[in-house]
């Protein structure tokens, strides 16, 4: 290896390590606080690792708080949202990718426009609409709202995945004797699986993290999702940061796991189509 | 295009139902998404806009009357609004710029093949999966000199005269949420830019290298032009999202100290949920929406010109 | 098998007209090649026959049945795509059997059909592979296999050999021709390669700018091109073309070229004295003689040996004259030769419209 090349390699690896450190340090800090015993929290606040560690916070969160309930609610809401959004975005994205029609410009325009709406402006009217339908303080209502808010971006995402699949394939299928829908289901959909995984993961993380609507549309503990539950640590237990961080770490696990596995599909899928658009 | 192509030149003898079915197909596919968007976003938007011209105060049964442009007149005189507008520009500008620059560098780094790239990529992208308010809480914690390391590092590096909490310093407070936002948002840029990078045909680089182009020249004459359309659309989407994104600020500083970190989005939040003045909040939101629309149109036009040149 | 009738077919995208009224009848079992430069509308026409493009006006019949309103799946045709369009998530066997499975054909019939097609195309050992694990030529064969297992009314080929290298293309060209001789299936083949068109076709349809220029047997098109476009498009090296003036007064019919050179032409030419014409002659018909033989004096500028023969570029009467000769070492660069255009080999075209006049 030439010296210049070696120098570049060292610089490159160092930069990658720096990025990883920057990305992971806050997560490490979260973890550190969550295992620091309360009496050391302030005394050893700046140390990289506490002199004593404990899982008390985790035990408390799992056994004595409503956190398992919040966790379950979040899981229901996020999974339902992810699946419904992906289904709707798939067929809408397919239409945008494969058909040239008069309304396309307006549909794309509308979907772009929705990305600009200040959420705060919509919350009160949404509450007013959902309330008489009995959809406030209910997971169903939350799912409906999340689906609507996530569908536009997911549709763009799915469209770019479909754009990456040659049109020839479904034409061949249609000549082979398939209806357009069959060609979509048997040829296109299996090839879009990575894209579907990416969209599922993307929407799941978004729904899992959402706070504002959850806070405004849900008032009872029964239908609270975990972001709302996390904030309840602030009031109920006089800001027990250790417990809060422990709950936070637990809440991070599903989202991070999900994302960890789908992120490469996100890159793969976008490579095929996004650039052309 | 196809729509026009379907317009027959001669007489179209196809049965009406069949023609209708063909024309309706794409609409049928997008209908579920569109209906939901209309019901949950458009209708509330229209109601929200109507609030801007009415006196809507929650829990006040006597409110709801039409006030015309009263809210907008009030806004023109509202010093906090103008400060928030300035803050929005610096919050959005710095966040997008830093996310973009670091996202682009990360994408370029990850575009090189090396052992363990898959793992490095997954780890670098992980912050995107962290709920925004949780990262806000966590960063606020890390900026606190009693329980967080950052002030001590900054003091050690000679950047801060004393290990104080920058979130409490009116001059520096805005940097707290910006740093948290950059941490959280780099992956989005890195993902989209990496995808765009990987779509650039490799032989272009080889041809340029044979022609004697330095790495920097290759970056400028091949990479940037290829990325430009993606950059334009990603920067536009991110700008719009970040301008609307109040979570981090509400959690970390709540607009303080002395309104120095109050951006329009968090100001709307304060007006709506602290003062319960939904009329005024909606009026401000309308102004923000209008500004973002103008900005997006400019970007779309810019992208159109870029694409035409390419 | 079936005949295909195309009547007054037009295609327009908005105000852009791609096909300006095409009429064509393809007989049962015939191999027809649509040839022309890219953008001439040949692929669009093929896709309209397949049902992948809407028909703006006109009528297409397959086996006597009007198919304008039929979906591709109901037209009973098979198509081989330029990209092969193999389903990446299916094995070779699954790719080939997909159409039969869609038709709910009995399992044993499917396996006989794909085994037969596989044997015919030499794919026997590859049946369980995915397309990714195949070479270009193998993929091409699978695409053909997918078409023949169905025994459709007609085969459509959309530039199926363009993605192969020259050697493989030649080989597959032969295989396609043999397959057609075996199956006797009605076939429509689109290509921009005139050699493919010449070698494969029973009949060639030469197209340009959305208009059919000439329909005929390969040798017909080669020997009697109907106009300048066909004359220039068919044949390699391309036909020599010279602008001149037709004269039939004061002597035998002739065409006056530049620098006072006059070339005698045959009788019965549909042009008036003094008409502007284009004279065409194929390089292989130009007679080159060393030294001062009969004909026009010319200087050799360039000699291109092809191994099979030699292409000579000579300058005469201010033009470049190409000649092709099987003889090696006929001339070298700088030689003075004489070139002659035999009367019965000369093509004459109307200068303005390009139509053949003799």
From TrEMBL, chain B:
It is a multi-pass membrane protein. Coiled coil: none annotated. The chain crosses the membrane at residues 27-53, 91-110, 122-141, 182-201, 222-243, 278-302. Keywords: Cell membrane, Membrane, Sugar transport, Transmembrane, Transmembrane helix, Transport. Pfam families: BPD_transp_1. The keyword Membrane applies. Belongs to the binding-protein-dependent transport system permease family. This is Multiple sugar transport system permease protein. It comes from Kaistia hirudinis. The lineage of its organism: Bacteria, Pseudomonadati, Pseudomonadota, Alphaproteobacteria, Hyphomicrobiales.
TrEMBL record, chain C:
The keyword ATP-binding applies. Its main location: membrane. GO terms for biological process: carbohydrate transport. Pfam families: ABC_tran, OB_MalK. InterPro entries: AAA+_ATPase, ABC_transporter-like_ATP-bd, ABC_transporter-like_CS, ABC_transpr_MalK-like, ABC_transpr_MalK/UgpC-like, Mo/tungstate-bd_C_term_dom, NA-bd_OB-fold, OB_MalK-like. It is found in: Cell inner membrane. Residues 4-234 form the ABC transporter domain. One of its GO terms (cellular component) is ATP-binding cassette (ABC) transporter complex, substrate-binding subunit-containing. The keyword Transport applies. It comes from the Bacteria. Keywords: ATP-binding, Nucleotide-binding, Sugar transport, Transport. It is a peripheral membrane protein. Belongs to the ABC transporter superfamily. NCBIfam families: PRK11650.1. This is Multiple sugar transport system ATP-binding protein.
């Amino acid at each position: 290896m030439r010296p210049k090349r070696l120098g570049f390699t060292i610089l490159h690896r160092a930069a990658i390590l720096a990025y990883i450190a920057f990305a992971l340090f806050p997560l490490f800090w979260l973890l550190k606080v969550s295992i620091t015993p309360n009496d050391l929290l302030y005394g050893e606040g700046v140390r990289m690792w506490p002199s004593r560690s404990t899982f008390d916070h985790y035990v408390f969160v799992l056994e004595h708080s409503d956190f398992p309930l919040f966790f379950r609610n979040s899981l229901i809401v996020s999974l339902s949202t992810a699946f419904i959004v992906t289904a709707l975005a798939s067929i809408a994205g397919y239409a945008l990718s494969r058909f040239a029609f008069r309304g396309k410009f307006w549909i794309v325009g509308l979907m772009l426009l929705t990305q600009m709406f200040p959420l705060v402006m919509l919350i009160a009217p949404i509450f007013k609409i959902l309330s008489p339908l009995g959809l406030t303080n209910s997971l169903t209502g939350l799912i409906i709202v999340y689906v609507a808010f996530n569908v536009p971006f997911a549709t763009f995402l799915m469209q770019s995945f479909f754009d990456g699949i040659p049109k020839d394939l479904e034409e061949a299928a249609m000549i082979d004797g398939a209806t357009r829908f069959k060609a979509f289901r048997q040829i296109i959909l299996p090839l879009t699986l990575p894209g579907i995984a990416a969209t599922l993961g993307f929407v799941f993380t978004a729904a899992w993290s959402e706070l504002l609507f959850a806070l405004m549309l849900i008032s009872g503990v029964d239908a609270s999702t975990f972001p709302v539950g996390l904030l309840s640590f602030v009031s109920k237990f006089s800001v027990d940061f250790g417990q809060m961080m422990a709950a936070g770490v637990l809440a991070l696990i599903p989202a991070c796991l999900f994302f960890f596995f789908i992120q490469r599909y996100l890159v793969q899928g976008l490579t095929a189509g996004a650039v052309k658009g | 295009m196809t729509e026009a192509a379907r317009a027959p030149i001669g007489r179209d003898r196809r049965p009406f139902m069949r023609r209708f079915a063909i024309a309706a197909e794409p609409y049928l596919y997008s209908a579920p998404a569109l209906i939901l968007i209309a019901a949950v976003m458009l209708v509330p938007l229209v109601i929200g806009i109507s609030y801007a011209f009415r006196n809507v105060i929650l829990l006040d049964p006597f409110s709801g009357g039409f006030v015309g442009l009263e809210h907008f007149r009030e806004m023109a005189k509202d010093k906090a609004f103008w400060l928030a507008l300035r803050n929005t520009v610096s919050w959005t500008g710095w966040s997008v710029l830093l996310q973009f620059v670091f996202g682009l560098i990360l994408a370029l780094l990850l575009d090189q093949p090396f052992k363990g790239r898959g793992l490095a990529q997954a780890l670098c992208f992980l912050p995107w999966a962290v709920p925004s308010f949780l990262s806000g809480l966590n960063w606020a914690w890390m900026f606190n000199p009693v329980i967080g390391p950052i002030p001590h590092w900054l003091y050690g590096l000679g950047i801060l005269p004393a290990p104080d909490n920058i979130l409490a310093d009116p001059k520096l407070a805005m940097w707290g949420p910006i740093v948290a936002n950059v941490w959280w948002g780099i992956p989005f840029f890195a993902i989209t830019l990496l995808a765009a990078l990987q779509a650039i045909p490799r032989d272009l680089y080889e041809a340029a290298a044979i022609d004697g182009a330095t790495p920097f020249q290759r970056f400028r004459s091949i990479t940037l032009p290829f990325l430009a359309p993606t950059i334009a659309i990603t920067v536009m989407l991110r700008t719009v999202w970040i301008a609307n994104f109040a979570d981090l600020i509400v959690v970390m500083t709540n607009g303080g100290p002395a309104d120095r970190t109050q951006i329009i989005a968090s100001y709307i939040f304060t007006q709506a949920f602290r003062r319960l003045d939904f009329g005024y909040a909606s009026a401000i939101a309308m102004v923000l929406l209008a500004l973002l629309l103008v900005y997006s149109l400019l970007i779309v036009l810019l992208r159109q010109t870029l694409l035409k040149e390419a | 098998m079936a005949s295909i009738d195309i009547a007054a077919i037009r295609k327009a995208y908005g105000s852009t007209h791609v096909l300006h009224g095409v009429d064509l009848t393809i007989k049962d079992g015939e191999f027809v090649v649509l040839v022309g430069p890219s953008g001439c509308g040949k692929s669009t026409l093929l896709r309209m026959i397949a049902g992948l493009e809407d028909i703006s006006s006109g009528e297409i019949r397959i086996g006597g049945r009007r198919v304008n309103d039929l979906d591709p799946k109901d037209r009973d045709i098979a198509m081989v795509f330029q990209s092969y369009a193999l389903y990446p998530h299916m094995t070779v066997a699954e790719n080939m059997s997909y159409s039969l499975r869609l038709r709910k054909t009995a399992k044993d019939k499917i396996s006989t059909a794909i085994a037969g097609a596989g044997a015919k195309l030499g794919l026997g050992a590859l049946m369980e592979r995915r397309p990714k694990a195949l070479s270009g030529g193998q993929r091409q064969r699978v695409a053909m296999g997918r078409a023949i297992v169905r025994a459709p009314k007609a085969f459509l080929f959309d530039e199926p050999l363009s993605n192969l290298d020259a050697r493989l293309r030649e080989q597959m060209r032969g295989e396609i021709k043999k397959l057609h001789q075996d199956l006797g299936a009605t076939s429509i083949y689109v290509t921009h390669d005139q050699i493919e068109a010449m070698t494969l076709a029973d009949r060639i349809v030469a197209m340009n700018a959305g208009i059919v220029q000439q329909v005929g047997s390969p040798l017909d098109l080669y020997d009697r091109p109907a106009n300048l476009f066909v004359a220039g498009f068919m044949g390699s090296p391309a036909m020599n073309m010279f602008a001149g003036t037709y004269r039939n007064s004061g002597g035998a019919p002739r065409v006056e070229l530049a620098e006072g050179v006059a070339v005698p032409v045959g009788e019965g030419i549909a042009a008036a004295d003094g008409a502007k014409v284009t004279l065409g002659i194929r390089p292989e018909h130009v007679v080159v003689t060393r030294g001062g033989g009969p004909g026009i004096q010319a200087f050799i500028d360039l000699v291109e040996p092809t191994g099979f023969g030699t292409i000579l570029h000579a300058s005469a009467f201010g033009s470049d004259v190409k000649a092709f000769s099987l003889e090696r070492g006929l001339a070298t660069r700088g030689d003075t030769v004489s070139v002659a255009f035999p009367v019965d080999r000369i093509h004459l075209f109307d200068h303005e419209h390009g139509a053949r006049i003799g």
